[in-house]
Fold this sequence. Notes:
The complex is a heterodimer of chains A (228) and B (242).
Chain A: H1 5-44, H2 49-63, H3 67-85, H4 96-121, H5 125-133, H6 138-168, H7 180-191, H8 194-222
Chain B: E1 2-11, E2 14-24, E3 29-33, H1 40-47, E4 55-60, E5 63-65, H2 73-77, E6 79-82, H3 94-104, H4 110-123, H5 139-151, E7 157-161, H6 169-184, E8 188-192, H7 196-202, E9 205-210, E10 213-219, H8 220-225, H9 230-239
Parallel strand pairs in B: 3-8, 3-9, 6-7, 7-8
Antiparallel strand pairs in B: 1-2, 1-4, 4-5, 9-10
Helix pairs in contact in B: 3-4, 3-5, 4-5, 5-6
Amino acid sequence: MMVDLSAIASSWPYLMRGLWFTVQITVVGVTGGIVFGSLLAVARLSRNRLVATLATAYVNLMRSIPLILVIFWVFFLVPWAIGWMTRSGRPVAVGASLSIFVTFVLFEAAYYAEIVRAGFRSISPGQYSACEALGLSKFHAYIYILFPQAIRNVLPILLTQTIVLFQDTSLVYVISATDLLGAATKIAQRDGRLVEMYLTVGVIYFLFCYAASQLVKQLQGRLAYGAR
Amino acid sequence: MIEISNVSKSYGSFQVLRGCSASVARGEVVVICGPSGSGKSTLIKTVNGLETIDSGEIKVGGFRLAPGVTEVSALRRSIGMVFQSFELFPHLTVLSNVTIAQTKVLKRSKAVAEEKARSLLARVGLSGHVTKYPAQLSGGQQQRVAIARALALDPEVMLFDEPTSALDPEMVNEVLDVMTGLARQGMTMVCVTHEMGFARSVANRILFMDGGEIVETADAVKFFDDPQSERAKAFLAKILKH
Lengths: 228, 242
């Protein structure tokens, strides 16, 4: 069987549109996931039992169901939920892209929450005391002192999780969204170019992830305090 | 300035503080000493609310701490604290360590805060290190930054919790010198320390603790020359032998 490079060339713009959506999901998932995940982490460490329990329950729930199921649920249930909330009684279409963004933020937040929580745990209790002794408010202490240290302590793990997220975006095929893999699949089936398409996207996924993992390696060396 | 009345505290069934009462006058330097596990650190941490108390009352300036009192931020602003393990913020430069609470807590402008920080860092002998990170400094230097950080809020009282215990022997004196200078300038100070030379020459009074109680309170010189309680005698015999 011959590999036809022209098949790749002619479908390149479409693949790139798919890649662009993949990147969008990743960026939204990482940003939203870290922000929401950090709030969950702080909530889990809270002295308020109710807040801590709710956050823990959320994180454990999300971590015990497959992503593919959550993608499915959000896509089919959110329109109903919005319809119910607006009392219109009928589902409101939210579109595949929006439902995917929401899914990734909600789902990845649970994983980022655990990583950020480990980051907070790695800070010595004396740092909390120092913040208190200086009269810093809880908010200021978290924003300026604790969060930067927590993130820094777990930055390599955060990046690793981000690589996983990048790969997980391919699961949006279940709702026929056109991410990188979705685009490749559609062309592969239309043109009968399965080998070319799947090889190409494989290479693209590999290049992205390899570059990111090299970055992680570099960061690990440079992260020691004072080593700059 | 500080009035500690009948303060008790337990961790579960273990009572760390038993009916402690003491007072510190403005401008006075008081050293708390005693064997390890005697409750010294716990007592000093109750003064700025880092440790809650189960019963009794503490007054600092115009502020009052008692069981269940949770509004402590104003009190903490008027008290500076120096920790055994420095607890500088490792991700911030020396200068930022000294300015952060000024700008966030006292809402000083960046320029005012930095000027204050620079003059305090000069005072503790660290003018040349403002742009460094804590990890690039020696232990003694870090502890002096920590003192400058605490002083930046213009506290009326300074608390020192074993400030030299984590230091290599050759660095102890540079920190004690800074503390002595502060005392000479009239700062009200409470220090938990094992540095008996410092206690004798700088402190006005000694609080001797054992088993969670304040066993003896005496003028510094009198405490070392003529301790009254058997427990203080035993303690001094042990630490002054060599």
